[in-house]
Amino acid sequence: MQYKSDIEIAQGAAMRPITEIAKTAHVDEKYIEQYGRYKAKIDPALLKETQRKDGRLVLVTAITPTPAGEGKTTTTIGLADGLRRIGKDAVVALREPSLGPVFGIKGGAAGGGYAQVVPMEDINLHFTGDFHAIGAANNLLAAMLDNHIQQGNALNIDPRRITWKRCMDMNDRQLRFIVDGLGGKVNGTPREDGFDITVASEIMAVLCLSTGIADLKERLGRMIVGYTYDDKPVTCAELKAAGAMTALLKDAIKPNLVQTLEGTPAFVHGGPFANIAHGCNSVMATRMALRMGDYAVTEAGFGADLGAEKFLDIKCRMANLTPDAVVIVATVRALKMHGGLAKTELTEENIPALERGVPNLLRHVSNIKNVFGLPCVVAVNRFPTDTDAEIDFIIEKCRELGVNTVLSTVWADGGRGGEALAREVARLCEEEKGSFTFAYDADMTIEQKIDAIVRRIYGGDGASIAPAAKKQIARLTELGFGNMPVCMAKTQYSFSDDQTKLGAPTGFTVTVRSVKVSAGAGFIVALTGDIMTMPGLPKVPAAERIDVDENGMISGLF
Q1: N or C: which end of the chain has fewer CB within 10 A?
Q2: Are residues 504 and 305 in contact, defined by beta-carbon separation less than 8 angstroms?
C-alpha cells in the first residue's frame, strides 16, 4: 500500500471556508477577522458577549517522548474528530508550531496522517504572524534597554546583569552567546548578550497566559529585564516600553481559527515549548474552545511530567481551569525504546523490553490519577507491527491501576479511528468525577515546590540546588516572588535531568543550576541539567528537504 505523506494528504483536502467553520463553532460573523479563505482571527470580545456556558475540558498528554514517536497532537485532533462523529459538539485547541523544529529535526506540529489541522503549510510556516509579532516586541524591548544605557542610564542598570535576551524563531546555536555593542561609543555599550528561540521568550508565556489586552500590557510591564548596580530589579514598565510592545501584539493576542481535515473547528494559538516554558496554547484559545463547544480538547507539550504538570500546576491555577478527563498517549514502539531497544529493533515482538519500558507509562498514569486526582484513559496508537500480546500486556498493566486502555488509529483512519477513544473520554467526563488537586501548594517555598515536583511527579529523591541557585532563590523570595508556581526547564527525554535515564528511573536527584523569575508570566523558572533556550540544527536539517515549485506548491514539509 502506498502511503501518502502528511503534506500530500493536507494538500489534497477539500477545506471549507472559514466562515462555515466559525458557524460550526457558534461564532457570529461579527467576531471574525479573515486571513484569506481558510484562516481567521477571532475577536476576544466573543468571550465577554456570548451567552454560552463552558463545556467539558479534555487534556491530551503523553509518555516521555522517544525517537519512535507517540502522536500526541495527532491523537488530540483525531479525538476531537471522533467526538464529533459520535454526536458530541467538540472543538480543539492547539499550540502554533515554531519554525525552529519545522526546519530542524522534529518537523511540523499540525498533526499527521488523516488527523491534521489545515491549511497545514500556513500553520507550520508564518500562519497569521503571531510569532513574528512576539519576536518584534521582544527585540523592541531589547533595543530600548540598550538605548537607555547608551543615553545616560538614568535607571543605573548594570550591563553585566541584564537578563533580557534578543530572540528569533529559528534554531541557531551560533547566537546563544554573543558580544555586541562593538565599534566604538557611538555604537552602544559592549556587553555579553545572546538569543533565545522565540518560543522561549517570556513574551510568549505572557501572551499565552493573558486574558486580554489590559492584562497583557500589565504583565509586560512587570517583566524584569535586568538589575541595577545596587541589585534592584528593572522592569519593562520602568523603560516605558509596555505600551509600544502591546501595540505590536494587539492582533497576536487574538486566537486563530482553522479546521481539521474533517471540518472540526480548531483554535491554534501561542506556542511555548514545554521543556523550557509552560508548553500550552493560550488561555484565551482554551477558553474559546470551552465556551464554543460542549467538549474542548487540548494538549500540553512533551510528556506528562512536563507539559501536563505545567498545564495543571501553572495554567489551571492561574486561569481557574479544571480538566474533566486526561488522555495519556503511548505507543508499543516507544515503550520498547524505554525498555532499552534501539529504533531499528522495534518491529519484532519483545515482551521483556515492553515490560522494562511500561513503567514509564504507569508512572505518568499514576501521577494524573493519584497526584492530580483526575480521571484518565490510555490511548495506544497502534502500528502494524504491534502484536496482540504486546497490546494485551499494556491493557493488563493499566487495568491494575484502574485505568482503561483504548486503541487509536486516527493517523490512518482520522476521526473514525478515534471513535472508541471518544466514547471512553465522554464516559469519563460524564460518569467519573475527579477531585483535582495541585502537585504543590502556592504557599510552599520555592525550594519546597521544586522538591515536590521532583519527588511526586518525577519519582526522584529530591532536588539538589546549586549554591548560585540558592542565592537566586533567596533574592527572589526577598523580592516577593516566593508564592509563584514553578516552571521546570528540564530535558523532555527522561523523568530525570539526564536524558539517558529512560523508563521510570529511581534513586536520582535533579540538579537545579539556576533560578530566575518570569514576573510577567507569573512563575519561577528552574533550569536543570544542560537545558538550553536556543536549540541548534541537526547534522541534516529538515530544511534541506523542503522546496517549492514554480506554482508555489510546497514539498518536503512533513
Answers
A1: N
A2: no
In sequence order, the 6+-apart residues with CB closer than 8 A to the CB of 396 are: none
Looking at 372, 411, 481, 495, which residue is catalytic?
Answer: 411
Q: pLDDT tens for residues 503-543?
A: 999 999 999 999 999 999 999 999 998 888 899 999 999 89
Cross-strand bridge partners of residue 94: 268
Task: Look up 383 and say whether it is catalytic.
Answer: yes
According to DSSP, residue 307 is labeled: I
CB 263 within 8 A of CB 16: yes
Per-residue confidence (pLDDT) for residue 111, from 0 to 100: 86
Percent of the chain clearing pLDDT 70 (strictly above) = 99
Q: How far apart are CA 518 and CA 549, in angstroms?
A: 43
Catalytic residue among 39, 41, 56, 72: 72
Mean of pLDDT values over 143-153: 97
Based on the residue annotation, tell me whether 558 is a catalytic residue of this protein: no
C-alpha 360/C-alpha 446 separation (Å) is 27
Cell of 184: 566604538
Tell me the pairing of strands 191-193 and 233-235. Answer: unpaired
Question: Catalytic one among 142, 274, 353, 469?
Answer: 274
Which pTM was predicted? 0.95
74 is catalytic: yes
- CA–CA dist 324, 345 (Å, integer): 38
3-state secondary structure of 223: coil
Is 95 in the active site?
A: yes
Residue from 74, 198, 260, 298 carrying the catalytic annotation: 74
Is-catalytic flag, 302? yes
Marked catalytic residue, from 106, 176, 191, 455: 106
Question: Helical H runs in 367-416?
Answer: 388-399, 410-413
- Is residue 399 part of the annotated active site? The answer reads no
Per-residue pLDDT for 107 more than 80? no
Mean pLDDT of the chain: 94
